[in-house]
Amino acid sequence: MVLKTIRTATDRWTHKDGEFAYMFEPYEGDEVVALDCEMTSLDPQKAELVSIAAVKIKGTQVLTSDKLDIKLQKPESLTGDSIKVHRIRGVDLLGGEVLGDALRQLLEFVGNRPIMGYYINYDITVLNRFIRPRFGFSLPNRTIELSNCYLDKVQRANPELVPDLQFETIAGKLGVPMVGQRHTALGDAITTALMYVRLLKGPVPA
């Protein structure tokens, strides 16, 4: 955490007059961005991006019309094992976005809003491996971990409980339907957004 704070302060100074200076400004609005990425590996130091999706949440409303959904050019590390998870084949990525262009779209879409997701630090770690060499900084945004929000809400009412934090289990306990097929970036981003809103305004999960 200390290293991230120092790095962000250094990046803020370096980019204070640059194109992305606004990324480092304190966010004062009421929007959050739900983010999900599909990748070729569970190792954040080796994973390559296959697709990126994000949707904005304003207050307690999921803005499904204000979303980002990008498929990338086929990465070299796309294998049968990763295809079994996200079901995105090489042929599905024909005409996909160049990585640098996709990352720029992501930065412009997210801005300086907080980023929320399920195991979001994994996605951020992978994204920063590709963002920093191209743009000279890592994502400075505040992050919100969905599973922690769920855990906190459950344990405030029932301190002795240790809830199951699997994605599907949380969705089921919150009564949130899975949007699209599991392990598609846009479907998971919207489902995550719906779960977050349910935690904000709904009762304690049973």
From TrEMBL:
SMART domains: EXOIII (SM00479). It comes from the Bacteria. One of its GO terms (biological process) is DNA metabolic process. Gene3D superfamilies: Ribonuclease H-like superfamily/Ribonuclease H. Residues 31-205 form the Exonuclease domain. Keywords: Exonuclease, Hydrolase, Nuclease. GO terms for molecular function: exonuclease activity; nucleic acid binding. The keyword Nuclease applies. InterPro entries: Ribonucl_H, RNaseH-like_sf, RNaseH_sf. This is DNA polymerase-3 subunit epsilon.
